[in-house]
Specification:
It contains 13 helices and 9 strands. It has 307 residues and is α/β, with parallel strands linked by helices. Strands 1, 2, 3, 4, 5, 6, 7, 8 and 9 form a 9-stranded mixed beta sheet that branches. Helix 8 packs antiparallel against helix 10 and helix 11 runs antiparallel to helix 12. The longest helix has 18 residues.
Length: 307
């Protein structure tokens, strides 16, 4: 039992990321705000992650290892259950915080004690070139459940600081979701608590080939689960429901299943006929999976060059 309970519990889930963990952990140790504990939850790594963490001589660091692979959500939940802080901040093992992140979030919580969650903007960064590809800043705050039904307008878990009592009200992360776990959590929190944000980017979100966000199959399943889980609320707005079908269709086409993807895009058009972008992707789906993927790859490269 700790003599002093920290204000913030920083939870870093990790698995086979010996290359990244010094960067993420170092960015926490470099915070201007220092009243925190760090809980590293190792989801049964097979590399030297544990050895690397053991070299850090800091009493604020705790290392917990799963005996079997359970997934990122289970690792976050292990961290939550073992935390002592009033607030929980998550950091993915391949991301990095800017030094003022925790301090600025705590300041906002002090000003607005009714808040359940504070998130921040973040940079998308190419992990090889270190080039900033683009930046994201939230735009919605308050009781934003309806906004979150449309899309994850808050972003990644690495930006979030959450009042610990929220988890007692809404539960922990859904361990059955292969993707969109953060979105699902934000939806549940937003039903009961106000959410605010710091617009400036305070997180570096690194793009590399091993990110779960690049796993299209997991994205499709996660998107479908979100649609089914919140369908009764989503269906109240045709435009919102249309958007869900379109994104699922877009991802299916990108994954090579243009037949199923086209059906989802047609559903989207029937629900909201006035979005011209839908028709463009419907036309692309008629050209076949290979041509569709090539055009999207070209579009992505051009976007990254001019961001």
């Amino acid at each position: 039992m700790q003599e002093h309970s920290p204000i913030v519990s920083v939870i870093i889930p990790t698995c086979n990321r010996e290359r990244f963990i010094p960067r993420s952990l170092g960015s926490v140790l470099n915070q201007s705000f220092e009243d925190y504990e760090i809980i590293i939850v190792d989801d049964c790594s097979e590399d030297n992650t544990g050895e690397i963490v053991s070299k850090y001589d800091d009493k604020r660091i705790r290392y917990i290892r799963h005996k079997k692979r359970m997934g990122g959500s289970a690792a976050r939940n292990t961290g939550i259950r073992n935390s002592n802080g009033l607030f929980i901040a998550f950091l993915d093992d391949d991301d990095e915080w800017l030094p003022e992140k925790l301090c600025l979030q705590i300041e906002l919580f002090i000003k607005r004690p009714e808040l359940g969650m504070v998130c921040t903007g973040y940079f998308y960064i190419d992990d090889i070139t270190k080039k900033v590809l683009k930046k994201f800043s939230p735009e919605k705050k308050g009781f934003i459940y309806k906004d979150l039904l449309e899309t994850n307008c808050l972003g990644t878990t690495s930006t979030a600081m959450i009042r610990k009592e929220c988890f007692g009200r809404v539960g922990v992360f859904d361990e059955d979701l292969p993707a969109c776990q953060d979105w699902d959590m934000w939806l549940r929190i937003s039903k009961m608590f106000e959410i605010d944000f710091l617009g400036q980017p305070l997180v570096k979100f690194f793009i590399h080939k091993n990110r779960i966000t690049r796993n299209i199959k997991a994205k499709i399943k996660g998107r479908k689960t979100i649609l089914n889980k919140y369908y009764e609320d989503i269906k109240k707005c045709n435009k919102t429901l249309s958007g869900h079908h379109f994104i699922i269709g877009y991802l299916m086409c990108h994954h090579g299943d243009v037949f199923s993807g086209r059906k989802e895009i047609i559903k989207a058009i029937r629900l909201h006929r006035y979005d011209m972008g839908y028709y463009k992707y419907l036309f692309l789906s008629l050209l076949g999976a290979s041509f569709y993927s090539k055009l999207l790859a070209i579009k992505t490269r051009i976007t990254n060059i001019f961001v």
